[in-house]
Amino acid sequence: MARIAVIGAGMGAMAAAARLAVAGHRVAVYEREATYGGAVRRFERAGFGFDTGPGLLHLPAVYRDLFVKTGREPLESVVELSQVDPAARHVFADGTAVSLPNASRAGVLAALDGALGEGAGERWSAFLGRARDAWDRTRRPLLEEPLWPDWQVLGRDPYPALPKRGLFGRRKPVPDASLAGIAAHELKDPRLTALLESYALAYGFDPRTVPASAAVLPYMEQTFGSWYPRGGIRALADALYERCLARKVEFTFGAEVTRVVEADGRAAGVELRDGGCAEADTVVAGVAPQRLTALLKGAQPWGADDVRPDADAHRRTPGRFTVALALRGPRPADAVHRTVVHAADRAAEWETLFGPDGPGALCERPTVTVLRPDDPTSRPDDGHEAVTLSAAVAPYGELALPPTAPDAGSASAGETAAQAAAADRLMAAAEAAIPGLRERVLWRAVLPPAEGAAIPGPALAGADGRFLRPGNRTRIPGLYAVGGWTHPGGGLAHAGMSGALVAGLIVNGDGWRGSE
Question: Whole-prediction pTM value?
C-alpha cells in the first residue's frame, strides 16, 4: 500500500483519489480552501440555491464508470439524474428563437428547419456528421489514453472539412480551417454560425483561432445529451466527496501546500503552509501548471519534448461572470432549463474577450446563458424561482474579485459600479428569455470570477498541438498532474477522465496506455 498525497480537491483530483483508494493505496487530500469541488460550487441564500460553475453534465457515462469502479452503488443510486429536454433554447440577435431537443439528431434537424427555414437542419446535420468523424478519430487519444509521447501527430486537425469548389470544377482546400472558418463555409446562415460558435465560447475558446476539431463540442452534447442532477451540479461533487470518504480517503481543508518535496530524484511528499510536512510515495497535483511550477520552486514540471503550458494562457482565457437572481412568482410550466441569448454583435464580443491585450470588459450586449432549473431544492417554495445568468468576461480587472476577496462560490460583499453595470447588461439580455424579468427580482447576487479564474477548455487536436494540455506524467518520477489545465483538459467529463488516467498510470505503471 503506497502513500499518495493529492494537492487540491477538485473533481479530477477526487476522481483520482477514489480510484486510487479502491486500488488499495492510502490517499490523503490537501485542499487550501474550506470545501471540495474546485469550480463546482453552489451559492445559497434565503432558501435559494444556484450553481456557480458548470450548469449541466454531458457524457454521464464517465461518472457512471467512476461510481461503478469505486463501489457497488451506481451513480443513479446517489444522484438523481434527469435529461434536460429541450436541451437548450437559442435566441439569436435578430430575435429568431429555436428550441433544440435533447439527444435527438432528427429532432434537432426538424427544429432548425422550422425556426430558420428549410435546409438549415440538413446543413447542421451534415456538419454533425463530419464532427462525428473528428470525434471517432480523437476520442481515445484525447479522452481515454494518457497523452501520447509523440503528441505532435495530434497537431493535425481531424475534422474532414469540405473543400471549396473552384473554377472548372477544381477543388481547393478551405483557406480558413478555424471553427469560425468552417462555420462560414459550411453553415451559411449567420444564426447557425452563431449556434456553432457559442459552443466554443462556452469553453473560453476564440472561434477565429480554435481549430475545426472543436466541432466535437456540439457533437458531444447533442449525441450524449444534457443531464441535470437534483440539487444542481454541486450534488455530483457532494456524491463524489462522500464516495471518497467511504473509501477511506482523508481530507484536510484549509491546508495550503507550499512545496512538493523531492528526495532521491523523485516526489516524496508535500510541505504545508503551517510548516508541516506529509511524506508520500507519490504526489498527485490537482492545480494549474503555473502553481505546480511554483510548488517546485520554479522548476518546469514537464520536459522540453513534452507539451508545455502557455505561460500566459490564463490571462488570454475568459472567466465566468455570474448573477444569481431570486425571483417572485412560480416557474412557468413551459420554462426552458437553459437558454442562450446570443450577442448582438459577435465580432465586437470576440474583440472584447480575445483582443491582443487579453480579455477586456463586458461588451454592450454579450452572449448570456440563462439557467432556470425545475428543481424544488433551488427555491424556498413553488411561489418563487431561482435563475442563474452567466457570461464570459476577463478573469482580471474591474469585474474580477481581488485575491483577498471570497472565492467565486460566494457573492461579493457589495457590487462595484462596474460589476453592477455588467449585471444590468446580463439582465437586459436575459429579458429575451424571461419577459418581465426585472419586475420579478426579489434580490440578486453578483458572483464575479476570482482573480485569474479562467475557464479551462478541453484538449483539442489540430493547430499544431497548441490546444493540447500538458500530460498527466511529469518529468519528475512520482509526480502526476490532474485537472482541467492538464490532459485531457477542462469540463466535467474531462475532469473525470483525467482522474481515471492518473489512477491508471499510478496503479499500472507509466507504460500504461489506457483501458481497452
Answer: 0.94
